[in-house]
Every structure is written in structure tokens, then in C-alpha cells.
Design goal:
mainly alpha, 93 residues
Length: 93
């Protein structure tokens, strides 16, 4: 459960980073997943999840998947910007 909490913390920050990289639609689409995942986690820790509420785990797992996709986008954007900056420096030199 500790690892899932770490994922929740990381993926809760992801919409802010995406917003800063001008991926506004992707950031806005992730916000409901983040809220649903935190709701699921808090409900699980406090009172537990009944068998009829298994759909909450779908929200939780969807946030993990969507967060991984968003994190990959962030890494690719960082790589692209570093490559452009490196090419610019080489052309100036």
C-alpha cells in the first residue's frame, strides 16, 4: 500500500506539470481520476470498501494508468526540449 500512496502523490502533481508544459486538455482530463483515486484510497483506509463497491478500484487503477501515460508525455517533452536546446547550442558554436 505504501507504493500506491507514493504513486498517488506523484500523479497528483502530474496535472500541474502538464499544465505548465501546455498540455492543458490532458491535465484537465486527469483531475477527475486524481480525485476518484484519492477518494478510493481514503475510503479504503478509513472504513474499507464493500464488495459492491469494486468499481472504486477501477477509478484507482485508471488513475495509475493515466498517470503513467501523462508521466511518459512529460518525459518525452523534456527530452525533446533538451534535444532542441542541444542542437541550438551546437549551431551557435
Amino acid at each position: 500500500m505504501d507504493i500506491l500512496l507514493i504513486f498517488l502523490l506523484i500523479f497528483s502533481v502530474t496535472p500541474f506539470v502538464l499544465w505548465g508544459d501546455n498540455w492543458k486538455k490532458t491535465a484537465l482530463m486527469q483531475i477527475p481520476f486524481v480525485f476518484a483515486a484519492w477518494f478510493t484510497f481514503i475510503k479504503y483506509v478509513t472504513v474499507g470498501i464493500a464488495p459492491s463497491e469494486n468499481y472504486l478500484w477501477i477509478f484507482f487503477l485508471a488513475n495509475l494508468v493515466y498517470g503513467h501515460i501523462a508521466f511518459t508525455i512529460i518525459l518525452l517533452e523534456m527530452r525533446k526540449s533538451l534535444k532542441l536546446r542541444q542542437n541550438f547550442v551546437q549551431s551557435q558554436g
